[in-house]
Structures
1.
Amino acid sequence: MSEITIPLCLLGLLFLLLGSGIWVAFSLLGVGIIGMMVFTDAPVGNVLATTVWGASNSWALAALPLFIWMGEILFRSKLSENMFEGLAPWLTHLPGRLLHVNIFGCGIFAAVSGSSAATAATIGKMSIPELTQRGYPEKMILGTLAGSATLGLLIPPSIILIVYGVATEQSIARLFIAGLLPGVLLVTLFVGYVIIWSLLNKEQIPMEENNLSFMEKVRGTKRLIPVILLIGGVLGSIYTGIASPTDAAAVGVVLALLLSRATGSLCKETFIEGLLGATRTSCMIAFILAGAAFLTVAMGFTGIPKSLATWIGTMDLSPYALLGALTIFFVVLGCFLDGISVVVLTTSVIMPMVQAAGIDPLWFGIFVVIVVEMSQITPPVGFNLFVIQGLTGINILRVAHAALPFFLLLLTALAIITVVPEVVTLLPNMMGS
Amino acid sequence: MIRNTLDSLYKGAGWLAALFLSAICLLVVCQVVFNVVDRLSTLITGTAIGLTIPSYSDFTGFFLAAASFLALTYTMRSGHHIRVTLIRSNLPHWMQEILEGWCLLFASATSAYFTYYTANLVYESYIYHDLSSGMIAIPIWIPQASMLIGLALLTISLSDDLLCHICGKPVSYNKNLEEFAQSINE
Amino acid sequence: TSWDMPTPYPDATFHTQNIALFAEDVKKATDGKLVIKLHTAGSLFKHPEIKNAVRGGQVPIGEFFMSLLGNENPIFAADSQPFLATNYDDAKKLWNAQKPIVAKLLDKQGLMPLFSVAWPPQGLYTQKAINRVGDIKGIKFRTYNATSEKLANKLGAAPTQVEVPDIPQAFSTGRVAAMITSPSTGANSKAWDFVEDFTDIQAWLPKNIVVINKRAFRRLDKETQTALLQAGAKAELRGWEMSKKETETKIQVMKDNGMNIIQPSPELMSGFKVIGNEIVTEWEKEAGPAGTELLSTYRK
Ligand code: NA
Ligand code: NA
């Protein structure tokens, strides 16, 4: 039964450390160190230094601070303000109005960035102040942002699909294409939820001015041009092969600088403020990532994730029951490990089970991504929560509460792709023949 | 005197981190510009030139590590490392003070432990002449030193704050975080 | 005793499967006195960290791609020199010549080699047919270390750095148009999604190596040590056979998925051999007396 008691002890310890107010990164490091000291005889300190170094000097990770920097530049420019001004007249009749900017903004930005933290940081930096100032309810601002930012992992490019593809020898190109329709499905679910919520809570959604004629609206849309140029430029650089998805982040920074220069909102002070802001935010995230990487390795040494997965394997479940059990397993692990770590730690045990049950590994990749997305918004360890607390100073538990409906929507999406697997497999199968 | 030296040390590392972050951007942009030139040359002459920055992915990774670790202290002192304060804020003042001491003690101890073993890692890389595996062979202790410096500074800063807390003086991060909160509300 | 063993490649890779069998053998031969727990696909330590983790005693045993250490000493990269050893027999001979020197170099770091298994011969993946060396001139060629960069330059190709996970995207967007890698990597990354032709040039057979921390080894009793060494020797033999079978199956997989499997023209091969000789001569100069010794043993 130690499969259950040890993780529970460690989870309890994590809650204790976090609850007493210790910084998130130090809590993760602490649990890793204590867990390894108690349950293994490996040289803890040396493993700590090696792991953190290995996890910190990664080329693929470099996109994260660059996207964060891009968000800081845009936040200080008139670009974000212009975007909202340009979109507002068109969204007046849609229940929920500018809240949808969070969803579509994240959806579009997800096509540029491979991680949900970068998506949350970039879109949030612009949208939170604007929406708050316009009087939208805090709970919905935070919820739509935390929820939609998870699209960063599902809509290609995606760091986690690359990790999964490499670990399971699935074609990354096919995985990327498979993520498209489920991404659209999620956007639809999120938009639908915001519409229904807004119809039920009409008084909480502020009015947007709507005495403009159609031509005036079109003229106002001119304000969107810089943003469209920016997104077009970044996407263009990827799909013309000039930049790899990681390089594209730097293209984004340069374009953001040029555009805010052109609109006259870039000066020495804003440049330095933006750079320092990006340095702080990316350092905060990098330190937590380092802590998470070490906790992952510590767990690897204790062998807990593997024995848990093996334990599920011994139960001899039907495919649906297996998927249900794995969902619970991933959600529980996702509470205190970063989603990518969960995939890395458990694929070698889970994949044989999944394939034995006759589940398509390509489909399962998308299933895993959606579960990992859910883990991004569950406390205590949820990277979207951390990013949003970093942006707003609002406590992660409050953010997590606001994101709860979106957690449930992700769960719904899981159910839909399980019942209708074609949502995932349709596009890659068309590509195959 | 000591106060000033320490403060400028913390700040200097923060600036250095920002410099490394811009260096990442610069490096990647150079590579992208090279790609564009190559693309144009293929269009015009039919052959690509093959302009690359050797080991640019290694350098980006090393710069990223430097930016992350050197910024640790600056980020800590400006109150941007996040923590859960919800439960604590409902406790009486004296208990909050004790908890703050515990947090600082735990963080300083962990940080010191981490620093010690990082020093060990850098030392091993140095005596074994470990090299990076890319096109340009870089002695790995050089980029690793940024991790050591960053963590050592963090340990000093946390002990600094712990000392301040014990002496009843305000800690750096709360003061700065209040300023940050004000700037947001403005 | 229980040993944690990090390996860099996924479970489906034949190297990993061979190591899993090796772990079983060890367990059986020692009656469970020594159990090796595998941590595959870089799940414990990332690939660049594995060697140092074994050296520092963080784990007693580990596997890595040997020429990853080529910058530390060119001897480690002997098996990645283009057109030096181009079939399994030659590769085996090369390993026999390389092994004593590698063992000596690893010994300085407190490590000992247990066994080493070759990857299938490296082939050329292109989007259009390559008949002579001149056809590669001016096209974007994937490089990932100093040797591949040198090769690209000598071929007159345009070197482009592409990381492994980025390969499909780089091909489909035209950032790269040719690469040299094994049939395993080609089949596993579904190369038919982005290239047409596989030319079986058998450029070189790089190896993975399994190393042990000597202190950890000494702590085992004599019987366990012997059992471990025997299981290692058995794994080496089995691994090379698995590698041969892997070559056949993976080339067949690519064929079945519509890729053109092309036997290189004599003209192409002679062009490659010339370039290969130049590179090996340069390598010998870099590697010093040990390099000369290795080559003369190999060519005997
Ligand atoms: Na994405
Ligand atoms: Na979570």
2.
Amino acid sequence: MNWEPVIGLEIHVQLNTDSKIFSAASTAFGAEPNTQACAVDLGLPGVLPVLNYGAVRKAVTFGLAIGAQINKRSIFDRKNYFYPDLPKGYQISQFEEPIVGAGKIRLHGSDAKAGNSTAERWINITRAHLEEDAGKSTHDLYSSSTAIDLNRTGTPLLEVVSEPELTSAAEAADYFRQMHALVRYLRICDGNLAEGSMRCDANVSVRPAGQVELGERSEIKNINSFRFVERAIEVEIQRQIDILEAGGRVERDTRLYDPDKNETRSMRSKELSNDYRYFPDPDLLPLEITQAFIDEVAAELPELAEARQARYEAEHGLSEYDAAWLTKDPDIAEYFEVTTNTSQDAKLSANWLMGDMSAALNRDDIEIAQAPVSAQQLGQLIARIKDGTISGKIAKGLFENLWQAKETNLDASAVDAMIAEQGLEQVSDTGELSNIINTLVADNPDQVAQFRAGKDKVLGFFVGQVMKATQGKANPKTVNELLRAALSE
Amino acid sequence: MQGFQNIQSLAAGLRAGDFSSVELTQALLARIGELDGAVNAFINVTEDAALNGAKQADAELAKGTAGPLCGIPIAHKDLFCTAGELTTCASKMLANFTAPYSATVVDKLQQAGMVMLGKTNMDEFAMGSSNETSHFGPCHNPWDLSRVPGGSSGGSAAAVAAGFAPVATGTDTGGSIRQPAAYCGVSGIKPTYGRVSRYGMVAFASSLDQAGVFGRDVNDLALVLGAMSGFDARDSTSSEQADPWLEGLSDNPDLNISEPAKGTIGLPVEYFTDLSVGSAELEAVRLQLEGMGYRCVDVSLPHTDAAIPAYYVIAGAEASTNLSRYDGVRFGHRCEDPQSLEDLYERSRGEGFGGEVKRRILTGTYALSVGYYDAYYVKAQKVRRLIQQDFLTAFTKVDLILAPVAPTTAFAIGGVQDPVSMYQQDKFTIPASLAGLPAMSLPCGMHEGLPLGLQLIAPHFHERQLLECGARYQQQSDWHTQQPQVRA
């Protein structure tokens, strides 16, 4: 039978406010455990939550970017459950009346590789709501105890819920990537997956292709990387298909993905709570926002990927493919703009980014923000190719040297310093090159005769020899001109 | 005796040099030491803090610029957090809890120069109408030690009645200031919801809890309430609607009631049917008010009967989650040697909470559960709106409402065992709580040797009308000046 997966994602986006959503404690990552939890975060008796409007602004920013309805009145609810990293015994969230209503986001079709249609694909977003994060439990730090760090408690989250419209693990991962790019374009989240700044829960079900009714679903909790989203959903789809094909029934449950074993497994029922007893938090008034506030946020929306792509095509004459590639990630787009600004050549800059840079990033498995070669340096390197200081071939080596040197000086000047230090300038001096060529002509009469007999290819032999003699630094254009002149004599 | 003087006379004594704040404080501490063994109004007498505070107040008074509350002792209900002193909420759960912060109310009164004598007894987590659910034993009514002082703020009411403190703070969720004020023969006010910050008040039912004050007379209530009131950025439900008159009382402590009384006072018929105790006394009050120039008319508050069930659903629901934080993990009571997380929760909470608190947590949890939420919580909220609407409608016709405070006088300790009968204690106070209205209880008679109270209710933020009417009444009555004979 042909099975059709149906996937919906709930993505928790940590909003990058300085302080927490209901207290004044800092949200900075990496502090000593429990040093960034104030009385409100600890849930001490008598303290009260006070809403951080910075988080509201970021939520509205997001809503506007996905073309969603912004609800001028929304309600904070208490979601009740007991867990040691939830100090109050309830999480403040939004249940029936969230701040952001229905919107949609465009996928860029990274599925194209798999031969799927690259036609425009939109995924509907059901809603997005504000809530506070819980603390962090670590179960493997002490043998018989659980360690609790409440620094994360109260960090603002925007939970973005998609419609169950994603049809493959790859598409779900693509959606997650688009969301990641969007929140970073909007500067509402630092996007640091390793630090848990974006986490997602995936609802997965399968049904016979063509069936309208949805199959029973399972929820995979707390996935925090692009790769794991794809793998987790992949194995969960397969697990469900295996059950169905064996004549079994998929049970609704909540599962965790184990990346080491590449499997999902059911969470102990103790970790679940079926009845959260949501009700409006009486400590917080309904959140009312004005049209003027919404308009103000709208006026400050940054240029997003699609607009930027169009601009690159128009301003720089880049192809649709290149412009899309460069704008898929705001950090890459920023990098590209700085590189181009320095190199004054958008096309060459694009080629370098999509070629050598992309390959190096993949090889070292890092993001462009961590690249050891700065945008200014790459721009300078390209400028030096353009002005003939170095050859394209030497430039590739120079790029690699810069990369490995892990210079602390990310300034463009590091490029010129390295060119000088390693003597990488092209030899364009006709006197020096003529001497080499004259020697070669004298030493290789056979090849000279062949050339003169019309065998133009032999020129390559001579070019190679000149390059060998100059350790590749000879300016190829000058070498060509001088060789032709010498051989034609 | 200083124990029974009002603030105005104490402030005059302090300024005249009749006694210092330290001497006044020592005198009250001595009286507490002598008699509180019998009354049990205090959970914790903060002697050192009191004497230090009094010393500072004397220094302020010597400068000659101190306000009228400077140097005046006060007792705080033991659910206001007080930095450096225990805040127990009369619960085993918090028997060892000291907050690292003070409630806004405590801060403000301290800034006004008031001297904290100690923390008063109460029903556990403010859940009760008799002060019998306290982990630290019941508080006794100074008028008859075999009787309850009312609750939940029983200790504060008893402390004022017994001459331990001229004024005391309390909180009122469904009548917890007004009913004990009536039972102890003192004056008590619960202001409009939002008038006073809830920051640092241990929560029972957040949408109903409101701080207020007990005193010997309306003038004292006005002074202390003025100092407590005002918007607080730390409490999102505190109102930005300021009352310059109320907050400015400390500069001009006299209520200006020389003008003739005018306006209409409504008597809700639903409150007077079947009123067994106090109807004659309230009828006398009505005649007195009319004599002052008020017009008294009957009004109807048709949804009154639904108030108690709605209240116990809403208050229970909120309490059930407000009290989830007491889990033995970070503070408060923790069971010995927990075997698992479940065990830690079950035994810490099982041991730390008393029976009434558990009952409310259970009923509240039930009311919020899937399948019951609409039938209980949502319905109770609808009833709440109807009750609010009743009052709004009535206040289109009248300026104030006169009502009884409680259906009986103070009953014997142990005399009401059935929780549902106990909940009936609050039938006249709960409606104003559900509506968030300011309301006041004043002594208006004695019945078989026990005090009786009247209740005045005003529209939202109309504390001034309430206080002025009360002050007029006390000009022409002396019930508030009666004192019990307390014996050790």
3.
Amino acid sequence: MSLTTLLVGKHVSYIQNLGKNKDLAYHRTTHLRMNGIYWGLTALHIMGHPEALDRDEMIAYVLSCWDQEAGAFGAHPEHDAHLLSTLSAIQVLVMQDALDRIPDLERLVTWILSLQQPSGVFAGDTFGEFDTRFTFCALNALSLLGRLNHLDEEKTVDYIQRCRNFDGGFGAQAGAESHAAQVYTCLGSLAILDRLDLVDKSALSWWLAERQLPNGGLNGRPEKLEDVCYSFWVLSSLAILNKVPWIDAEKLTAFILSAQDPDNGGIADRPGDVADVFHTVFGIAGLSLLGYPDLVDLDPIYCMPAKLIEKMGLRKDWKALERRTE
Amino acid sequence: MHNVKRVPLSEDALKAKQTREHAQLARYLNLTDTVLTKRKNKDYSNDAFESTTALLRDNPEFYTIWNYRRQILLRGIFPQSSAVQIKDILIQELSMTTEALRRLPKVYWIWNHRRWCLEAIPQGPDDDPTQWKQSVWNKELYVVERMLDTDPRNFHAWNYRRYVLANVAHPNSETHELAYTTKKIESSLTNFSAWHQRSKVLSSLWAKGTLSLDSKEEEFDLVKNAIFTEPNDQSAWIYHRWLMGLGADKELLEREISVIQDLLDEQPDSKWAMDSLVHYKSLLIQTGPNADKLTLTNDCLRLLNDLRTIDPQRRTRYDDLGAVLKTNQ
């Protein structure tokens, strides 16, 4: 079956049903629950159905994940606080206009700042795994909370620069190979800090454009397979660099649409695979940046509705493709 | 879910799956409940430790349980153990993560636990306090090499490898690493992870003076061989750009342009040859007034025009590059 349009109705009900079938896979993925809610809610916002999930229930769930000992959010009730789930919780509360419900904002800010290592990189939690993903989570969260002024900016930027490679890309740690998802987190971090002057824009735009494969899909590193999630990591990076036209939008659109599940809704990593909410949101986010008709504008740095980010005064100088009318 | 094929299930098949999962689910929920209750009660006993083993075997992505396991070790078990016992427990932990990584080589939490264990190895024995640490760390390269045999592009494994190398004090470790990347590249020219690692190791060896800068010529030979063998593979072309980026004067630019031109004559629709020629010719234009600017610009514009045809996905990029060349003309 050829899939040439976005099955909005199917995807909305797919997301609504995610919490209903409480099978083994559902219970085995509690460590991703808070992220899952952010992914689902963002996808709904971009499709123009922000109210498809119950607001009060969602806020109550987020608050039930507050880790009183740490002063931050875990992925699920009784799970330890982590930056990944903390950023998602803040993002959900922003989209639900409920930031004032955070149990203890001062403790939360202190906790985030405490995760910065002497090198400048952030750890994900107090157990010390560090990665430029966590730097981005911290910066993103602090900027949404209006607390970036508390950050040691020089140290932060210094570590990100150490992760830059000759191809213009960035890796997870100093010395690591460039990877599209890490490019997004480092570029997003520098964009939030207004330090895009540190980027080798021509090399990086070239490297990003070469992520597109003949079938239209994007990969995350040279000579790897395509995957729908890179539609966001690569495209958002290109949008930050104002170079989205450097890939073939029509072919990428077709690739993302072909990875939909026409029966149950949702988008998979590749055509014919099992859909999940992670690939669903990043597929839809990619389509929004590509100007797909009737979708809501997405901010490529914050991966949330652009209008919301604008209203918070956080809009930066990025550029997606014009929204098409049909 | 990555790489899981969608298989439509009949109603009967779905029912059978649910029945099968029913007992498994009950067991999983029961175990989760047990472990989380012990955790809430600050139970740091051996029994609690065993229960985390069972749960993590079932679900190694449950990061809270890894945290709890480390708390049990630090608060309950280590305080009652001798240094030798602590070392032995940590070695067992390493085996447990090896087993988990064999099944799930891309789970961050498992790699993270492994690093924690390595760093927690105590000093000892008394007469040679660094011996335990050294012997454990030395095995790590072997373990990570087996992981890279299975998936030579696993970035978790490469990152871990760099971490181990940075911590193992061995005078020849960088020279060995260079040889390792040669081996990986020879077995697969498309392994960009190995090319990347090579660029890092060489930079360090050259900066320290361990390796003479003359060896750069050997790199040009290696990459030339790769480019002629697999002209459509990005890896070697990107590496070539790194080599040139270290500082290419007019002479070197002209030499490499001529090498790539030979390849293009052999393979007239090699996109990467054309793209590289545009890049190096553009650099040559900037090398000074002696360069034949007009001819070079026209060469580039012609190549960009050909690129538009053979690589239409990126035609806007080629248009943009052409526009810049015309403006500077």
4.
Amino acid sequence: MKEIYFKEIGSFFGSIIGYVVAGVFLLTLGMILWVFPDYSILYYNYASLDSFFFIAPVVFFFLIPAITMGMFAEEHRSGTMELLLTKPLTTAQVVWGKVLASFTLVMLILLPTVVYYYSVYQLGSPKGNLDTGGILGSYIGLIFLAFSFVAIGVFSSAITKSQIVGFLIATLLIITMYWGWGLMAKIPIFSGIWDDFVASFGIDKHYISIRRGVLDTRDIMYFLSVGLGYVMATIFVLNIKRK
Amino acid sequence: MSIEVHSLTKTFGTQVAVDHINFSVGKGEIVGFLGPNGAGKSTTMKMITGYLLPDEGNISICGLDVLRQPIESRRKIGYLPESNPLYYDMYVKEFLSFIGGIYRVDQRMKKVEEVIEQTGLGEEQSKKIGQLSKGYKQRVGLAHALIHDPEVLILDEPISGLDPNQLVEIRDLILEIGRSKTVLFSTHIMQEVEAICDRVIIINKGKIVADDLIDKLQRPSGDKEILQILLDRPLSIDAFRQINGLNAINSLDPAVFVLEFDPSQDIRPALFEMVKRMDRKILEMTVVHEGVEEVFRKLTEDNRSS
């Protein structure tokens, strides 16, 4: 597992694409939060990172599939899957190596956004007047969310030979998991007793819940189940291909 | 036994790719695995290496069951897949060290140097794999299969698509490796089989149609032997009729004859006598072997017509 993990991290930063993806992510986020007026922290006039935590998942819709799209699709296309699976490695080790590598990459790209916290901290009046606890909780929410997105992305990559298809399926699945359930809950047949239940399948509901600053085990369990569910599905799909 | 395959079967949809095959390969043998395209060679190799799961039957590598002890049995195998898939954006050394890491090879970098030396990759070792020529990529594939000193090597079409020089180099490399390891390799280049292996297994339509030592396969089925002679001057074909035990005579040229005879009766002394009587001299005499190619064609012929 360790070898697969380091290979993926190495090949991400070994190619120009890795830097482009990281650069585009940070540039987009920076422009939205500090330059363009609509979600700008500066125009908002409050020392808060709310708009960052609102925008971040939306940027993840595209960033995470871009990181995970090649994980298995490229191995399928070039035939190197055969190389890996005939080595003394279990399918689970290969999948976990790739999931953890993708997750680490997302975390590394997210790391520079800590500067935003520092900036807003300095800009507060008086200095440091911001909800540090809330921001910490939101970061934790974002980390769990990233894990579930990464699992979905790796799964999408495992079911195709094409990186582009892997990217599109991942984006579609992630957006559906994020907003789809909430939208579906609004269909009249679910109104009344069912709408809350349907909406509780959505990632957004649990993300918003964690962002309130309350770490509820139900939300954590939810993110872990989505993530683990997709990891299991990936292992299953790859084993089916050997039948 | 290094490789033991028992009643191995694999079906894709309605097509039976491998049909209850049995064979075993002893320690240190070099065995050629032949068959027309689509006969089931690669499928069998993919099952031996644990990439595909068989529908039926079992495989053991050095006594380890491939299905029940997948990890342990894969440690014993070095495998070069048919299309030689490699990570083209990795450097040769980086790739070999990555594979060595997966096998948890001791003193990894030393071992990497060793296989680079062994496969003649020296000059190309600091290039990216994608920049190498086909022959060198093949060497990287072989090097990666050797890095953990496996007892068994499974090579799927290791010499296809190489130019004549590369072919000879890779062949010599396989021969050298074969001195200390068990090798099962598939090919459709018959000269290579004759040059490399001790034994041949021919598979057709998922079934084994021949499994024998190469010397035995080269001999015609035992009921006839063929001699080709070259005389210094032309001779009438009728002159040969007086030799006992001769089954057929064919004249390729007025002075070149192909004689077919019963192996139980050696006609050579009588032949010399006759030629001497006719005041001719034999300049050349060769025993004509039926090549593996002929045997292969005969055994897999029905495949072509259907």
